Amino acid sequence: MAKKSKVADIAKQKGTSVDEVLAHLKRAGISATDAEDSIDDALVERAYAASSPRRPARGARGGRRRRVVIDAQASRRPGKGSRRGGGGDRGHAEVAEAPAAPPPDQKVKVSSGASVKDLSQALGISTADIIKALMGMGEMVTITQSLSDEAIVILADEFKRTVEIAHAADEGDEDATPEDRPEDLKPRAPVVTVMGHVDHGKTSLLDAVRETEVAAGEAGGITQHIGAYQVVHDGRQITFVDTPGHEAFTAMRARGAKITDIATIVVAADDGVMPQTIEAIDHAKAAAVPVVIAINKIDRPDANPDKVKQQLTEFEIVPEEWGGENVFVEVSAKKRQGLDNFLEMLLLVAEVADLKANPEAPASGFIIESRVDPGRGVVVTMLVSRGTLHVGDGIVAGVAAGRVRAMRDFRGEPLEAAG
Question: Residue 273: is its pLDDT beyond 70?
Answer without folding.
Answer: yes
